[in-house]
Amino acid sequence: MLANDAVLAAKGIGLRYPGQSANLLSDFDLLLRRGEIVSLLGPSGVGKSSLLRVLAGLQQSIDGVVTINQNPVQGVHPRVAIAFQDPSLLPWLTLEKNVAFGLDFKHQPKLSAAERRARVDVAINEVGLSHARSLYPSALSGGMAQRTALARCLARKPEILLLDEPFGALDEVTRSEMQQLLLKIVRDFDTAALLITHDIDEALLVSDRIVLLGGGPAREVGHWTIELPKPREDYVAELGALRVEVLTTLRRAMARRH
Q1: Looking at domain 1-79+160-221, what is its CATH homologous superfamily?
Q2: What pTM did the predictor assign?
Q3: Measured at the alpha carbon of residue 200, what is the angle toward residues 194 and 203, in degrees to the nearest 5?
Q4: What's the pLDDT tens digit per position in 214-243?
């Protein structure tokens, strides 16, 4: 993929914890294009979440540059949305108002009341929660809360969706439902999605590409393109062979850190 085909491009990214002389992450490149899901795998402590914050404009890297539509990222971008494992819903707001929260922030485009209402309606419908829009977070299941967090992202009409283990705390059935919802969102909104996950099987099921971080300082140590059609639950043999390859590479990368 060429850089000018990408909605987001990261080049030569380096990260370092404050007070440390050694880099946490070094010379990392990444391209994201519309309509694809890229999963980022790697052992704990290699800088995946910090990298996500750099891509979101929430943190500065010590090296490299991030561009969106070929323009350098300089702070929070209005068309980038980020979701975490904790939905972080405000308990005193209804589901509908939680989805709308943030649309009036300074870095967001000015919306009329009608435009704001339309965005919220579309987002809530997309995640299948129209029946629950007046409920408060205390009345929501874990899956419903995470759907609400995704709807809050979608209300911003993101070009780029950054996901930091958003399904990690969910049970297996709910997690599978959320994975299918992610596929639907990327297809319906034609957004680019970067998913941080520790679950190789999740990455295999939803990703167009998998990037593996490892070593010390961390850098890309594996990159796989998956061309199997989605949904992929029936491709057991193909995914099984790829899983072994990813896991073997991950184990080697972890061994090089010690």
Answers
A1: P-loop containing nucleotide triphosphate hydrolases (3.40.50.300)
A2: 0.93
A3: 35
A4: 887 888 999 999 999 998 988 989 999 999
